[in-house]
Specification:
β1, α2 and β2 form a beta-alpha-beta unit. By secondary structure, this protein is α/β, with parallel strands linked by helices. The strands form 3 sheets. A 7-stranded mixed beta sheet has the order 7-6-8-9-10-13-14, with helices on both faces. Strands 2-1-3-4-5 form a 5-stranded parallel beta sheet, sandwiched between helices. The longest helix has 20 residues. 39% of the residues lie in helices and 16% in strands. α2 crosses α10.
Length: 387
Amino acid sequence: MRALLIVALATVACTSPAPAIPTPTPTPERGVLTITALLDLSGPHASVGAQQRNALQLWVDQQPSPRTVPVKLRTVDVAGSDAKLLIELRRAAVDDPADAVIMGAPVTYDDTLGRAIGVAALPVLFALPLASDPAPRPGGRWTFALAPTLASLASLEIDDATRRGVLVPSLVLADQRGRIDPLANALGEELRRRRLEPLTTIAVQADGTIPPVMRSSLSVLRSVHCTVLASTCASVAEMARSSGAPTLLYLSYLTTPADLSDHRELAARAMLPGTRTILPVFGFASGIDLARQQFVRSYVERNGAVGSQAAAAYDAMSLLAAAADRAGADDRAALRDALERITMPLIASTYSFAPDRHVGPDPEDLGYLRWNGSALAAAPGPGIPLR
């Protein structure tokens, strides 16, 4: 009976074509570069989202009017939800259409997200680190990375810890929920690539609680690698210092000035990777250096201390505006192609893309920063103590 039903339905389908129902597809406002920014403003990385939102608004307020191609910005809070992020990506592609998306929330670029970007078929600029270059991945042709990859961050971290002589003994504090922590995974991959012994990785709870058996080892640790929220690692850093250990704490790229000012115990022996271009310039300053310093001054006057996340978000707007000036704002594929041809010095870095390379920032602009109590500053080199 089931087979007969299938045959009957197939026959009906073949002999009765579906009626054509007009379904108008909304399009972005013609002649206007419409950008949707997906940020984490109320989730675990709300401090990152705040840095990005402030920088995006600063860009909008500073742009001359009229522009060759006017820019319209819509900001959306995805609240740390992967499901909401995918929903809002579809909305930006179809329901409330945009010409491009700035992805400011931390994500894992897996095949599900890649296919969603491929279906959306609009440029997506990632302002936070991805695991690697997305170009060869599903949807990768539409994806542009404006932050260093997790692989490059892991390499930088191991290089620095090796030069300082603090790579071992050390500890990696990773996500306590049993998921693969992207940065912890990148550190492990880099150690395997160099044929070095793996570092001990432990799951740390949101309040910084670690297994009791590990507490006794804190007194001998040379470094702790925090791949989760800085607030989660604050209590571990304090316990290590209280035990008398000269422990150096490596924080993640997602650490913001607000995180550091809220947890002063992190500042004594903690460093984080970030763009060195937002630090003060002494001596001769080029035109781009002056533009960077003006950005920092304007941001600080409005919002307080500035971090790398703000600079990358600001650059995302500049890159899209430059691409629209070259290709117009009404053809998403042309906008993508224009981005692929860009080489441009901006605030966080000098960006350069190509059809087969969608990680844009110059690795030379990446370095270690520290918190001096009021702003980010350059971390001292190997052989020079932080305090």
